[in-house]
Each structure stands twice: as structure tokens, then as C-alpha cells.
From TrEMBL:
The family this protein is said to belong to: Belongs to the selenium-binding protein family.
Predominant cellular place of this UniProt entry's protein: nucleus
Keyword terms of this UniProt record: Acetylation, Cytoplasm, Membrane, Nucleus, Oxidoreductase, Protein transport, Selenium, Transport
Source organism, top-level taxon: Eukaryota
Protein name: Methanethiol oxidase
EC number: 1.8.3.4
InterPro entries: Se-bd
GO cellular component: cytosol; membrane; nucleus
Upper classification of the organism: Eukaryota, Metazoa, Chordata, Craniata, Vertebrata
Subcellular location: Nucleus; Cytoplasm, Cytosol; Membrane
GO biological process: protein transport
GO molecular function: methanethiol oxidase activity; selenium binding
Chain segments annotated as transmembrane: none
Length: 454
């Protein structure tokens, strides 16, 4: 937390599904307020193929490798959600102008692992990189974990022991001091990859479990049922490696789930935050849930931040007591319930009126907040507003047409509180090849969503 202030951020930019026959690319954004290029894209690294759907990224080395002088955080791993291709990007030679280092073709992942729909990448302290997959190449909901050698980037095989009962994939986090990895479930890819269909609710298509793995044996030994269609996806342990506590988004039901280790050594989970649904007209359903896009925990383990893709707000909770979080900050950044839109809110347990459209530096913002990244000192929260191409098109067609943005929020780290920085805006609607959609963000020096202390 006492490290230097962030100066640049890497962010995947999505052109998949935009009508432009051009590849997704990795943008380098200048976030140094002393720089003449502040809040501008200063470099673009296009991938060699189209329709990859870049998603989440991770490093070849992180804090789990602390103490090993041979390790360098100089390769960014970019798994592709759409194509199941894996890109390895060299950020060490010139961090302001990354270059492509290696391409791992999907057929290698298919042949060695029988996995597809790659989602999240984490480095392991043993010198490997692990990427979770949401399903198999046929789109079935049988997830698993791809292992890469962190030096050669050869696909070594699967971390898990595949069975006919392999659970769907979502996200994952590990904690060796408790000999555990916990993974989550999004659902069956061949259904949700075409968009959100309300008829799929109640049919078992969407995920509902937290899956507890033995870190040593790689065996699944416990599953916690969080309820039908809860979609527990984004997961974070507290950063203190001795802690046996963490948080998960119940993405489709607007809940935050606290998981923890019990005295008998098993794991338990309970919902500690429930964002109320809003009764509406003009939407897919008569009640609009808070669809949660991302969550993160500050490095001091004091605050939880969560993005609300549908209602349009970013929330800050004090989780000093993880059993009883307190809402201490909230700011609205567009969403589906703004005034003048097609949705009319008929009943709202939280707001007295619908929020105003979000405009910054004269730019009307469409879409809802999704991906979050926090500065190391906890004072600046960066936000982008794209989820996944088929869902973006469905929920926010204006977002695909106009492109997304990156916003910076100033954080009160003493009492809590959020305020948009009006001087910062990255408008990806003005990109050279046309409007792009920005997703997950990474600092060259590591951050609170990619680093695991062991």
C-alpha cells in the first residue's frame, strides 16, 4: 500500500461483436496526473485474430512468488473468453508499449485439457500459471483449470482431476495457508454465451455453488449451495494470508456472500448483503435485480467495493466485521434506471426517484459499471463499463454503438465515501478503429485483484 502511485493501466479493449472486422487489443492508459497524456490511451497492442473476446488477465508472477529473485512480473497473460486462445504479452521490455510474446492456440487447450471459455488467470508460487475455464469445447458446463509453465508457457495439462461431475466454472482464489482453493459457477456456456434469456431461470443453466478444493490433492471435497440462479461468480479472499474469510458476488441476485472456515475445518457461507430488487416496467422482467459485475477488497482488508451493472451504482462497504458489512459510499454511473429511459421504476426500497443520466465532460455515459481496480493506497477507484459482448448488446445497445469509458472515483479512506473525479475520463468511443469496450484493468506493479499472498 505504500508503493508508488500508479502511472499506467493496461486494459483489454473489445471490438468483438461491434461490426468492425478488427481484433481486440490491449490499451495502455496514462493515469499520471503530472503527465501531458493524462487519461489518454498512449499505446495499443492489437491481437492477431478477430473475435477473441479478451476478458480477464493475470501475471506470470505475483506476490505468491515473493522471495524468489528469479521471478519477474514481466508477462501479462490474456485468456480469451470467446476463442479460448491465450496471449502472453511482454510488458517488461517497455511497459508503456507492450508487445506480443507468445500465442497459445485453442486447439492446444482443447487437446490437452478438453476445456474452453477461459476466464481468469492467476500465477502460482510454484512457477506455474493457472487459468480457469467455464466449460468444455462443446459448451457444456464442465469447468476446470488449465496449467501453464510460467517460463515456457507450455500447456502442461489440467490442475483438477476431471470427472463426469466436473462443476461449471466461474472465478477462483486460493489460500495455501488453509490448504484451499474456492471456485465459483457462472453457468452452462452454450446457453448464456448467446445472451440472457429469462426463460433459462429455474432450469439449472445458471450456477449456484461455491466449490471447495483441497489445494494439495486437487480434489473437490465440498460444495456449498447458495440457491437457484444465484450465480456466485467473482470471488476474493481477504489479503491477509492467515485470514480464512472472503467475499463472493451473487451476480444475478444482487447479493454479497461471506464465506469462512468453521471450527471443525469445513467451510460455510452466508449472504451478508442483499441489494433489493426494483419493481419496474419496460424491462425484461417485472422486477430488476442488481446484476453485480465485479467486487474487490482493499489491500488493508477494510473496504469492499462492488459494481451494479443494472441499477448503475458502485458501492463501498466497511467490512471490518465481515459478518456485518456497512454501506459507507455510493455513486451512480448510468445504468438501466436513469430518468428518461425506457425503464420506469414503480417501486424502490432504496431511492426516492430515478437517478439522472450520467454525464462527464459533456459525454453521456451508457451502460452500467462493471470492472473495478483500486489504487494500492486505496484512494482511487477505476471503473469500466462493459460486461460481455452478448449481454452488452442486449442490456445496453447504446454502449456497443457509442463505446465504453473509464472513470476514476476518489475514495474517502477514513470514514468512507465516493466521489467521481470530473477531471478524469477515458472515452473509448473515440478509438481509431471505432467505439471499443474496455474491461478489466491491471497495473504493471500488481494490484489487489491479481496478487495473492501466501
Amino acid at each position: 500500500m505504500k508503493g508508488p502511485r500508479e502511472r499506467i493501466i493496461y486494459v483489454p479493449c473489445i471490438l468483438t461483436g461491434s461490426g468492425v472486422q478488427a481484433p481486440d487489443y490491449l490499451a495502455t492508459v496514462d493515469v499520471d496526473p503530472q503527465s501531458p497524456c493524462y487519461s489518454q490511451v498512449i499505446h495499443r497492442l492489437p491481437m492477431p485474430y478477430i473475435n477473441d473476446e479478451l476478458h480477464h488477465s493475470g501475471w506470470n508472477a505475483c506476490s505468491s512468488c515473493f522471495g524468489d529473485a528469479t521471478k519477474k512480473r514481466n508477462r501479462l497473460i490474456l485468456p480469451c473468453f470467446g476463442s479460448s486462445r491465450i496471449y502472453v504479452v511482454d510488458t517488461g521490455t517497455d511497459e508503456r508499449a507492450p508487445r506480443l510474446y507468445k500465442v497459445i492456440e485453442p486447439r492446444e487447450v482443447f487437446q490437452k485439457c478438453d476445456l474452453a471459455y477461459l476466464h481468469t488467470s492467476h500465477c502460482l508460487g510454484c512457477g506455474e500459471v493457472m487459468i480457469n475455464a467455464l466449460g468444455d469445447p462443446r459448451g457444456n458446463g464442465k469447468g476446470g483449470f488449465v496449467v501453464l509453465d510460467a517460463e515456457t508457457f507450455e500447456v502442461k495439462g489440467r490442475w483438477d482431476r476431471p470427472t463426469q461431475e466436473s462443476p461449471p466454472g466461474g472465478d477462483f482464489w486460493y489460500q495455501p495457508r488453509h490448504n484451499v482453493m474456492i471456485s465459483t459457477e457462472w453457468g452452462v456456456p452454450k446457453f448464456f454465451s448467446t445472451g440472457f434469456n429469462p426463460a433459462d431461470l429455474g432450469t439449472g443453466i445458471y450456477g449456484r455453488h461455491l466449490n471447495i478444493w483441497d489445494w494439495t490433492t486437487h480434489c473437490l471435497h465440498q460444495s456449498i449451495d447458495m440457491g437457484e440462479d444465484s450465480i456466485p461468480v467473482e470471488i476474493r479472499f481477504l489479503h491477509n494470508p492467515n485470514s480464512a474469510h472472503g467475499m463472493v458476488c451473487g451476480a444475478l441476485e444482487g447479493s454479497i456472500i461471506h464465506f469462512f472456515k468453521t471450527q471443525n475445518g469445513c467451510w460455510a457461507a452466508e449472504k451478508v448483503i442483499q441489494i433489493p430488487r426494483k419493481k419496474v416496467s419496460g424491462w425484461f422482467l417485472p422486477e430488476m435485480p442488481a446484476i453485480l459485475g465485479d467486487l474487490l477488497i482493499s489491500l488493508d482488508d477494510r473496504y469492499l467495493y462492488v459494481s451494479n451493472f443494472t441499477h448503475g451504482d458502485v458501492r463501498q462497504y466497511d467490512i471490518t466485521n465481515p459478518y456485518c458489512p456497512r454501506l459507507v459510499g455510493q455513486v451512480f454511473l448510468a445504468g438501466s434506471i436513469t430518468k428518461g429511459g425506457v425503464v420506469t421504476v414503480l417501486e424502490d426500497q432504496e431511492l426516492n426517484c430515478q437517478p439522472d443520466p450520467f454525464v462527464i465532460q459533456g459525454r453521456r455515459v451508457y451502460g452500467g459499471p462493471v470492472m473495478l481496480q483500486l489504487s494500492l493506497d486505496g484512494c482511487r477507484l477505476y471503473v469500466t463499463n462493459t460486461l460481455y459482448t452478448p449481454w452488452d448488446k442486449q442490456f445496453y445497445p447504446e454502449l456497443v454503438r457509442e463505446g465504453s469509458v473509464m472513470i476514476q472515483i476518489d475514495v474517502n479512506t477514513e470514514q468512507g465515501g465516493l466521489c467521481v473525479n470530473e477531471d478524469f475520463l477515458v472515452d473509448f468511443g473515440k478509438e481509431p478503429l471505432g467505439p471499443a469496450r474496455a474491461h478489466e484493468m491491471r497495473y504493471p506493479g500488481g494490484d489487489c485483484t491479481s496478487d495473492i499472498w501466501v
